[in-house]
Amino acid sequence: MPPAQPGFGAPGAPAPAYGAPVQAPTPGVGNYEFNETENKIVSTLASRLMIAGIMSIAFGVISLFGSFLWDVRSGILGAPGSIATAVIGIVFLLASGSFKKIASTQGNDMGHLMEALKKMTLAATVQVVGYVAAAVLFLLGIVVVVFLWAAIIALFAIR
Questions:
Q1: C-alpha span between 105 and 109 (Å, rounded)
Q2: Is the distance from CB of 32 to CB of 21 less than 8 angstroms?
Q3: Which residues pair with 20 in a beta bridge?
Q4: In the chain, what is the straight-line distance between the N-terminal and C-terminal CA atoms, in Å?
Q5: Would the pTM of this model clear 0.85, i.e. be above it?
Q6: Over the chain, what HEC string results?
């Protein structure tokens, strides 16, 4: 009697309810196919990512233009964060499309999942870089203000 496959029951037993292997796997990726329940979860994620992406783009653009209209200095300091927010929204939309493909196609769920995860990794990277740039600009702004105040105080002390 052959040994049972890891993760499955006895030989001849039905596969677990969480999905079934695809007959012709895509080269370089696993051969798992999501079932109807899993596809619904992934589809809901795709829809939420699309909404979050649209909102992120809108807030990033409004923040960028609003801060420049309000005050050029705040626009310069806030620009990296605003741009990062908009770019994250764009990447969320792209990831949303990849997640939708998981739920709406057959035969390449793992390939679509890996594509979506790469896009989510890009979104996280953009967010980190944008926020670090915003923090650096903020700190530089504080240094400039301190030096300007020191120069003003020194100028009045000389008179």
A1: 8
A2: yes
A3: 33
A4: 100
A5: no
A6: CCCCCCCCCCCCCCCCCCEEECCCCCCCCCCEEECHHHHHHHHHHHHHHHHHHHHHHHHHHHHHHHHHHHCHHHHHHHHHHHHHHHHHHHHHHHHHHHHHHHHHCCCCHHHHHHHHHHHHHHHHHHHHHHHHHHHHHHHHHHHHHHHHHHHHHHHHHHC
Write the single-letter amino acid at 37.
Answer: T
Distances (CA, A) of 154 to 17, 94, 109, 143: 76, 54, 67, 16
Reading the block at residue 116, the tokens are 């979506």
Q: What does the pLDDT look like over 67-121, one tens digit per residue?
A: 777 777 666 767 778 888 899 899 999 999 999 999 898 888 898 899 999 988 9
Identity of residue 135:
A
